[in-house]
Amino acid sequence: MKKLLISTLALAATAAFAYPDKPVTMVVPFAAGGPTDKVARDLAVAMGAVLKQTVIVENVGGAGGTLGATKVAKASPDGYTVLLHHIGMATSPGLYRNLPFKTLDDFEYLGMVNDVPMTLIGRPTLPANNYAELVKWLEANKGKVNLANAGLGAASHLCGLLFQQSIKIDMTTVPYKGTGPAMTDLLGGQVDIMCDQTTNTTSQIAGGKVKAYAVTTTKPLTTAALSGLPTLDSQGLKGFNVSIWHGLYAPKGTPAAVAKTLNDALRVALKDADFIKKQEALGAVVVTDARLAPADHKKFVAAEIDKWGPAIKAAGQYAD
Known about the structure:
Elements: H1 2-18, E1 24-28, H2 35-51, E2 55-59, H3 66-73, E3 81-85, H4 88-95, E4 107-122, H5 131-140, E5 146-149, H6 155-167, E6 172-175, H7 179-188, E7 193-197, H8 198-206, E8 211-215, E9 243-251, H9 256-269, H10 273-281, E10 285-286, H11 294-315
Parallel strand pairs: 1-2, 1-3, 5-6, 5-7
Antiparallel strand pairs: 3-9, 4-7, 4-8, 4-9, 4-10
Helix pairs in contact: 2-9, 2-10, 4-11
């Protein structure tokens, strides 16, 4: 029995040391082509180069990101299935009454990836040309304004929710099955406004295809396309600060040595010049602070759960 135990431990140690010896699957809990998918595909290339294995991006969309997250929570904890998720990791406990996983208990936290500011934009035919004019237009059209989002729990849904609460003007929320169709209808004038990630709006703003009113960070952005866009904080909504972050996770029980290998690879990948350049082009800021450490990553998510829970509860927007 003692020899068998020693042999088993030795085998486990060898397996961990050899990791990874086959491709790693990075699950994105949203449809292909969306903002989180863009981040994941860039990260997969950078991490794959470090791990010397292909990192395959698998899109498992549905239920506001909970289907993909559930798949990873229930996957074999061997390091070959990881999750790239955004702020939905922190908001799903408030949005879903019957969440099939426990956010803080069912995952190994591997580190944060980036912070993505949001932008408040409108259809190209909207009469308002700046934020002050937008507020006047919203007040004059109470009950008639359509606010688009990419679905319950999506970044655009959360930002729109907080924006409505902040200006105390209710709008008709129009949920879509993804960012793509929401943007298409905004461009076509079927909906009026949307608050979405810079990863999805920067090219539209730069091309003059939408009207841009503000960024949701407390400080202006420095990217060429968005440097002239004022913050909501500077235009009257003091303290308004919404960034959509992304983090990397593995199933609970993933061996410590494997988790460390993934964290080490993430740290190196986030210093990759090409990855940084691609993120900056999308308006995203690559994480360089303490949140790269798994413990600090988890602590941050716990704080975000505490932040968003009351706002979601106050709005009364839940899903089963």
